[in-house]
Amino acid sequence: MGPIEVKRFFGGFGLVQAGVQFAFVMKGTLYLRVDDATRPEFERLGAVPFSYATSASTVKVASYYEAPVDALEDPHALREWATKALASALGARKPARRKPAS
């Protein structure tokens, strides 16, 4: 992984690399970007998706899951999970729109 930018993200902080947010910290919890390939790994370890309450219900954000607890205590493991999260975020990035030919 290269340099990571930290940006304000609602009431927390977003972690950005290559112009793409791949993780954020909200209320002291690190959430990592997941995709269909990595989500089962998070679920197998008991991680849950980010959620927030609205006046009507609780909204689950299935694209971000809590970082595995063990990874928070092991820098090498955390790097591996963050690398997977970055790959998920890069894979989800929408291609740049091309200008129509004149």
Structure notes:
There is one protein chain. The chain is α+β, with helices and mostly antiparallel strands. The chain has one domain: YgaC/TfoX-N like chaperone (Yope Regulator, Chain: A, 2-Layer Sandwich). Helices cover 27% and strands 36% of the residues. It has three helices and six strands. Strands 1-2-3-4-6-5 form a six-stranded antiparallel β-sheet. Strand 2 and strand 3 form a beta hairpin. The protein is globular, with a radius of gyration of 15 Å.
Domains, number: 1
The CATH superfamily appears as: YgaC/TfoX-N like chaperone
Structural class: alpha+beta
Which percent bin holds the helix content?
A: 25-40%
Rg, Å, rounded: 15 Å
- Named CATH architecture: 2-Layer Sandwich
Secondary-structure element string = EEEEHEEHH
DSSP summary: helix tally: 3
What is the total tally of β strands?
6
What separation lies between the terminal Cα atoms? 40 Å
What is the molecular shape? globular
Approximate strand percentage: 35-45%
Structure in a nutshell:
With 102 residues, the chain is an alpha+beta fold. Helix content is 27%, strand content 36%.
Summarize the helices and strands and which ones pair or pack.
Elements (H helix, E strand, L loop, with lengths): L4 E5 L2 E6 L2 E7 L2 E5 L5 H6 L4 E5 L4 E9 L2 H4 L2 H18 L10
Antiparallel strand pairs: 1-2, 2-3, 3-4, 4-6, 5-6
What key attributes describe this structure?
36% strand; 102 residues; Yope Regulator, Chain: A; six-stranded antiparallel beta sheet; alpha+beta
